[in-house]
Amino acid sequence: MKYLPLLTDDEIKYICSVIPPQEASIYFQRYPKESAKILPGFRPKTIAKYNAGGELLFRHRNRDFISSFIEKHINRWLSEIQECIEECIEDGNDKDSAYVQILSQSYFAENVTLYFKLTEDDYPETYISLLSSAVAEAKRATEKQDKLEAEVTSRDIEIKRLQSDIKSMKVSLKSSKAKQNEYIAEIKYLKQEMANTEDLYAIIRSKEGIITDLEAEVKVLKRSEKELKTKLSAAENSQQQLAIQIRNEIEKQKTEKLIEQITATKPLCPIDMDEFKEYLGYNLKDIGASIPSDSFLLLKQHLCNILFRGMPILINRGTGLPLMKCVANALVGDANIDSLIFRDDISLQELESFLSGDKRIICLDNFIGNYNETEMINLFERHRNKIIFLTFAYDRTLRYIPYEFFRYCHYLNLNRIQTLHTSTELTEDPSVIEEREVNTPEPNLDARYSSFLKEMLADFGLSQSLAANICARINNEEDLCCTLAFDTLPYCVDVLQIAPFAASERLAKYAGDMGRCSYKNLFKEWFAR
User: Fold this and answer.
1) 3-class secondary structure, 82
2) Is 36 left (phi over 0), alpha (psi -120 to 50) or beta?
3) Could you say which of 116, 439, 510, 525 has the lowest number of CB atoms within 10 Å?
4) What phi-psi label fits residue 108: left (phi over 0), alpha (psi between -120 and 50 degrees) or beta?
5) Does the model's pTM come out above 0.90?
């Protein structure tokens, strides 16, 4: 593939500027005849000197001799980068981390946009812009770490030099002491043998002077040894502080990266919600969940309302497993669900690792009532791009869960759809729906039907904070009916074990025999017995 016709002059100039000068020099020397056509009268070695910043390559880019050289470099770079990215992903990194790690060390570190233009990968400009910033930051961090490591190496060399000097000083000191002992022995011998000779006195005085000088030298060497030990101690302390600084810097970068990942996590939602709803309907019909038809329409709408808000789904294990398969088969083309079952010895790290996997839809079984709810809420906030199902065995278990926990999840009760209780094999063809990141929708505090639901929840005895949280999700009458059918009314019957039509005058007026609700017959059949 020819890349140069696709690039602007500035982009070609960037490519020319990052090609290593020594490679251009070797190329010119390999083809001296073609090189002479560029700068006649100059030898190939001399021509390379005029290629500062790739200027010579850029100026003659339209010559086949030069363009083929540039094209070969682009092809080689792209192949090497792709190979390194694949190896990085195989080592367990996600694709975004692989891009940051590899591109920051490549020739495209300062022009990530050009890389994606050459690979023709279709990414949003915002993504490429964020990735460019991350690559630049990673490159700066790498350069800073290399600088710190070079300084550590320099300090190590200085320490070794000081240690060598001390060793030499010790050897010199030992030699001086040995000479001193020899001179002392010689003086004693001369005094004994030639006590009355003036020459001997002169020799003795000379030797004593030498001894005095040696003693002075010994003192100097001792002071030098002390100074060197002080310098060595200071160098070792400096090395320790530098090592601590490097560790702190690495930890800081890891923390910043984790914060960026947490901040960047957003819920995902189908680009075409109607398409997802249609395929979800096919899967539900396949297992017989389309009867009665009124509940089928409400169920599809309610699932579209709650699945993509970045909040876990609380559901009974019996009806939850077939529903999860339908959702997964319609959304990601794979009906197999990864599940983690609660154990007494399960750790926070194991739970974090499970949630960080690559599966879009996952299940945590039997954690409700057994695991710390506060820790789970913090984990869910960091993985809002997942669809998480929290399954439990008995609905009555939820009566002992604090109301506050329900502010961070959706309660979904499908116990009255009988076909979900049977073991029906899913045979519908899988489908994959394209998704995008979405912001959490703003609470709807002024909707007309929110006040209806608020009165009912007060009659049922739910806390004001939980009631306000549920009502904020109501945008129209269909949302109200969905919430009543699969959340509020089954919660009253199966968890609180109260008769909702008897407890709430507002519900009886809205969905009773004379009520205006379109689904009143369904509500009476399910919840008025």
Assistant:
1) helix
2) alpha
3) 439
4) alpha
5) no
